[in-house]
Amino acid sequence: MKKKIFITQKLVGNIESFLEKHGFIVETFEKDRIITKNELIKRASDTDALICLLSNKIDREVIDNLKKCKIIANYAVGYNNIDVEYAKSKNIVVTNTPEVLTDATADIAVALILACARRFHEGNKMMRQGKFKGWKPSLLLGYDIKDKTIGIIGAGRIGSEAAIRMKAFKTKIIYYSRSRNYKLEKKTNAKRVSLNYLLKNADIISIHVPLTEKTYHMLNKENLSLLKESAIVVNTSRGEVVEEKFLIELLKKNKIFAAGFDVYENEPNVNPELLKLNNVFLLPHIGSATFETRTKMALLAAQNVAEVLKGNKPLTPV
Ligand code: NAP
Ligand code: GLV
Ligand code: GLV
């Protein structure tokens, strides 16, 4: 009997034909919205493999209902949406999509940094409202990037690429991370520091840790108060790493200069206070959203599924 793969939403590219060529039956959720938990449980109960999104919560209840499933392939590098330990206890392999999205996501971190430092939101708004009345010496002044200290939180794949990009702006790099990253130090002369030192001394902070029990609210009321008044904070990792309401408080009171968000604490809901602020730049979680990257992520997820269903090792297990 042919093995079945369920995909929770149409991905970029045509992995259906790749998987069908391998002799599998592919079923994709037909609607252009996030599948509900009940729908997912119903549709995936007899599937041999599940390809899911970071916006699908794969908790114990869902896993208990995956009666035949051998692999959960997340269409993302972050896998905090999946109860990995529980899946493993049920002999289900979990895979993610590392590497292929590193550059695209690092680009978005840099884009947010520039958008914040040079006040893109206010400039864009001014243009669209027809309020630009000519060049002025002090119109929308921001900060130079050159000579600033960049603080990378989580110097893994994406954090390192963000640091390398920022180094090209003639900056100094400091980082806080679980392990020492000798490669990054060699490439950028980066110095490893404590989290508090980083928050106190960095001009620009870019967050790249995964969301885990240890990183949940890693930036909180207490340590956010260490930031400089000119600080810029950008987050392209997961919203829950930052205690968002305190960051918003600082932004509201102009206790920091600006913040750039690609991710939010209660995604897809956005704190309405954020929408009122001019010193923020907001993106809808598009770190990996390029034609090339999303196509590669889909192929990697499909390859992981094909290998596991053929009894082989996955390419990128978590
Ligand atoms: P990665 O290579 O695993 O890098 C994460 C880094 O964080 C590693 O260096 C890791 O340390 C460090 N770290 C983990 N826990 C820590 C802790 N408790 N304290 C200090 N440092 C810690 O992952 P990646 O590929 O760069 O991806 C990072 C995250 O970005 C993903 O998990 C995902 O949430 C997010 N992401 C977002 C988008 C987007 O669209 N915005 C796109 C892709 C990824 P070790 O070196 O010791 O492992
Ligand atoms: C995106 O957020 C990812 O983790 O791949
Ligand atoms: C600005 O446009 C300049 O020419 O300096």
Could you state the order of secondary-structure elements as H and E?
Answer: EHEHEHEHEHHEHEHEHEHEHEHEH
Question: Helix proportion of residues, in percent?
Answer: 25-40%
CA radius of gyration: 21 Å
Compute the average pLDDT.
98
| Residue fraction in strands | 5-15%
Main beta sheet, described? 7 strands, parallel
If helices are DSSP runs of H or I spanning 4 or more residues, what is the number of helices?
13
Spell out which ligands are present: NADP nicotinamide-adenine-dinucleotide phosphate, glyoxylic acid
Placed side by side, the strands forming the largest sheet appear as 8-7-6-9-10-11-12
Unreliable runs, pLDDT <50, ≥5 residues?
none
Label the overall shape.
Answer: elongated
| Strands, total number | 12
* SS-based class: alpha/beta
Q: Give the N-terminus to C-terminus distance in angstroms.
A: 29 Å
Helix and strand layout, with pairings?
Layout: E1 4-7, H1 15-21, E2 25-28, H2 37-44, E3 49-52, H3 60-64, E4 71-74, H4 84-89, E5 93-95, H5 102-117, H6 120-128, E6 149-153, H7 157-167, E7 172-176, H8 182-188, E8 191-192, H9 195-201, E9 204-207, H10 221-224, E10 232-235, H11 244-252, E11 258-261, H12 272-276, E12 280-282, H13 291-309
Parallel strand pairs: 1-2, 1-3, 3-4, 4-5, 6-7, 6-9, 7-8, 9-10, 10-11, 11-12
NADP nicotinamide-adenine-dinucleotide phosphate binds at residues 77-78, 98, 101-102, 105, 154-159, 177-179, 208-212, 214-215, 236-238, 262-263, 285, 287-288.
